[in-house]
Each structure stands twice: as C-alpha cells, then as structure tokens.
Amino acid sequence: MTAEEKADQAAQAKWLTPSNENPIKKAVLTILVFYCLWVFLLTLGVMGTGFKLLGGKDSAKMFDVADNPISALMIGILATVLVQSSSTTTSIIVSLVGADELSVNIAIFMIMGANIGTSVTNTIVAMGHFANKDDLRRGFAAATVHDVFNMLSVLIFLPINWIYPFLEKMTYEMAKDQKSCEGDDCNKTEFLKPYISPYSKGVANYDKKVAGYISQNWCAGQCGKSYSTDAMKKISEEVCTSSTDCSNVHKNYESNWMSKGYLAKKRAPAYIVGTASGTPAEFHYDKPAACSTSTKFFDNDTNFTSTVAGSLTAGTCYEVCGSKVKTGLCDKRLLKGGLLLDDWDMTDNGAGTFLTVVSLISLCSCLFCIVYMLQIIVKGTAARILRKVVGFNGYLNIVIGMFITIMVQSSSITTSTLTPLAAVGLINLEDMLPLTLGANIGTTLTGIMAATVVTSNPVQAWQVALCHLFFNIFGILVWYPIPIIRKIPLDGARFLGKMTTNPKWGQIFPLVYTFICFFIIPGIAYGITAAASS
Predict the structure, then answer these.
(1) pLDDT exceeds 80 at position 384
(2) Which GO terms describe its molecular function (predicted)?
C-alpha cells in the first residue's frame, strides 16, 4: 500500500470514528453549515460577476474569429474561463446560433471548449487546501477528474465530428420540427437562483445585454423597427453590391448580415444617400451631416410600399429606420446596478478586480469554516450514511450529480461544493467521478432552456443545446461503464493530484497547471486565430 493510500484510509477512518459532541452543538453547527453553503454559492456567483466585469467584453468579441474546430474549441475554453460559467457561454452560443450569427457546426466545437473551461472553478477551489498536502492532493485530483474526463471526450469526439458532423445531423432530425417561442412561452424556469441572484445583484448587477450586443456585432447600430422580408429586399437592392455581397455597407459587416440573400431585419440603416446610376447607395447608421432634409424611403410603414425604390436621386437623403436606430450599444457599461455602482460608483474594471479578490478570500474562508464544522457534525453515523449513499452505486451518483446541478443550474457550483468533501477524504475519487459526470449532464439544461426562448432559428438553437447534452452522454458511455477504461480518467486525475506532493514545486503546480491549460494555450491559439482573421 502506498503512502497516499494509507493517508486516504486514515482520513476516511477519522470521519467514521464516532463523535461525542453535544447534540445541541451539532444542531447549531448544522444550521451554520447551511448558511456557509449559501454564502459559498453566493460567493461563486459574485466571483463569476467579477470575472465577467473584467473579461465580459473581451470574451464576447472572441466568438467572431472562430473559423475552424480547433479555434472554436480554444475560444470556448477561454470565453468560459473569463466569465467563470459554462452556462453563460452556452447561453451566448445558443443565442448566437438562434440569431443566425454563428453556424451550428462551429458552435458544437465551442460547446466542447466550454465543457473544458467550466472545470477551472473547482480547480481554483481545490487550491484553498494548500495548507495540507494530503488535502491538496485529494482535492486537486477530485477537481481535475472533471478536466481529464472532458479533455478525453474532446480528444475522441472532436476529430470524429470534424470528419463527419454526426452530432449536427443527428440533432437536426430531432429538432427540425421546433417552433419559435412567442409571448408568455418565452419565460425560463429558475430553481435555486432566485434565492441567490437577488443578493449577488445587490452587490453588483451585470448587464448581459452588452455582451450580447458585442457577440452579435450590434456595435455599429441596430434598427428598432420591424420590417417585412420584402422591405429588407428593397433596402438591400439599393445598398448592396449584389445579392450575395453587401460588404460595402459598413466596416463591421459580416456575411451573416445577409445570410438569406438580403440584409437581416435589424440591420436596416438609419439613412441611405443616393449615388450615381449603377453604384450602391450610401449606407449610414447616423444621419449624415450633409442631410439637412430627407425623404422617406417607404411611403407606408405598414405595407412598406416605396415609390422611390429603384430610382434614387444622387445626393438625396432617404430616411429608412431613422431615429429608431440604436447606436453605441457596445459602449455601455457592463456594471448596471448594485452597491458597487449605486453607492461606490466604481468602474467596470475596478468593480471586477474588487469582486474577484474579495470573493477568492471569502471562498477560502467559507471552505475553512465548512470543513471545520463538518469534522464535528458528520463524524460517525452521519459520515457512514453519506459514504453509503455515494458509495452505493456509481450510476446513482450520476443521477445525484445531475439533480443537484439542475437545481443550481451550474456544474461549477456542484463540483466546487463537492471538491472540499473529497479533499478532506469524505468522498473518494471513484465516487467523485460519477458525481461530476452527472453535473456535466445537468448543466446542459441551461442551454436547453436558452433554446426554448429563441424567437428565430429555433431549430439551429435546439441543435446546439442537444449537441451539448449528447456530447456529455456519449462521453459517459465511452469512459464510465467499463472499469478498465474508467481507470484512464481516474489515473490521470490521481497523477495530477500526486504532482502537488512534490517537495520542491508541488504547491505551485496547481497554479502552473491552471494557467497553462486554461489561459496560456487557449490564449495563444486565440491570438493566432485573431491575427490570421484580421
């Protein structure tokens, strides 16, 4: 038996030893543990807000440059790390696909990257046990079993789906009859978030719309009017070079602006200016200085009839969307409310830095308090019951992990809450793996919920959400049922945990590993992709 195995057995034996503590004291400490868990969840939410304030705009810009599976994978990882939430990244990806801003094929590889990126949170949590080398080893192994499983699944399914897009084709057959939501059908169901979100928003409220404007490229402008297809075809005929190319209209132009052969409805200009015959009319989101007067392009804003279409006069200004065009959407602040804005008037970067530092301190403090109190409460009978529940059957653990994640709507929260229990030896690595796999499935609910409220292109949005679900299910089918194959992710996590015991550099290994895997490699790949696409 190795020294590590002896230490693990001793740690578990300590929990199973009967406790002689006063029952009243245990009851009080139990209430305090639940309070600390609530603070822990609140802290994770606040930490996520801090990361979003620091990296929200940058992460939203990343989605523009993905043009192959590898770059899409790396962008998925980096974007998720920057906002500390695969749920947020997945929801953005689903909404981009639903708005026809991103192809399903590329989105699938981004989802794979988001699956890897989400495990950075519990890896950070594991570092809170640096004071005890055995706790750090167990905790880091429990945290990285999530990383190893996701990386191994990507290693198999990325090349297969690259060669033949089976996920895209399979989910299309499942989602092809989906309809867009309307009115009251566009409401999402929340579970535990209503009990945490109001408090985190009371500290700092993050404006998700700004990141959406950036990721969907509304920085130039957005028309607030609703135009018919025929109306957009008339506008496109005036301003576009051809039915397949409208790149002349604006420097921010992307091909998805007219993916259907005409400009998308909200891409209508505020004004167009007639030019010489045979030349596309000028496209403007702001009123040109030379346009002291203007003529309505449409005679009727209901039927969208136009007597000037096809015969514009050179130099004449024609009002299209006019004052209904919204500009400067991407310049808005990410921090839109809460104590840090209303009372302290902090900048986005200042608030993000403050929240990140405070939340990391609070996270370590909560971990210390929870572990200390659990050592008193869970000793003896309670520990034996917990061991029986999580040790009863791995497939039951998958269901437990899935249920917890569905309730909190974040796999990061689930695995980050379980990691301290694994670090102190209450949950072993063999039980942690299926709990993590269940969390992976549970987190796909967020993407499915985002797909239910898509008002355009619902089929493609559902495809991406279902791809996320089946990617995780197929990964479990490959790596979990057969014990000898199951050992691969378990041994990989054990190896990473053992690396933390090196007497010279063991304690800094988690930090080095996290930076290399989640920041440096994806960051370099993103930089190369961005440079190549510019």
Answers:
(1) no
(2) sodium:phosphate symporter activity
The contacts of residue 54 (CB under 8 Å, 6+ apart) are 82, 348, 349, 352, 353, 356
- What DSSP string describes 338-390? SHHHHTT---HHHHHHHHHHHHHHHHHHHHHHHHHHHHHHSTTHHHHHHHHHH
Nearest to 247 by CA among 258, 238, 235: 258
What does the alpha-carbon distance between residue 447 and residue 87 come to, in Å, rounded to a whole number? 7
Instruction: Give long-range contacts, CB 8 A cutoff, 24+ apart: 23-28.
Output: 25/376, 26/376, 26/377
Comparing C-alpha atoms, which of 343, 344, 351 is closest to residue 50?
351
Other beta carbons within 10 Å of 481: 11
| Token pair 């080893």: residue | 137
Give the C-alpha separation, 311 to 482, whole Å: 71
**Residue type, position 519, single letter:** F
Q: Domain locations in the chain?
A: 3-163+201-216+331-533, 220-327
Tell me: the pLDDT tens digits for 225-252? 878 888 888 888 888 888 777 888 888 7
515 half-sphere exposure, CB direction, 13 A CA radius: 5
- Alpha-carbon distance 40 to 368, whole Å? 11
Torsion of CA 456, 73, 443, 462, to 10 degrees: 20
Handedness of CA 492, 497, 498, 502 (dihedral sign): positive
Q: In whole angstroms, give the CA distance from residue 381 to residue 422.
A: 18
Q: Which two tokens stand for residue 286?
A: 């702001």
> Helix and strand tally (H, E) in the chain?
22, 8
CB 412 within 8 A of CB 86: yes
CA–CA distances in Å: residue 113 to residues 78, 80, 108: 8, 8, 9
The yes-or-no verdict on residue 18 having pLDDT over 80 is: no
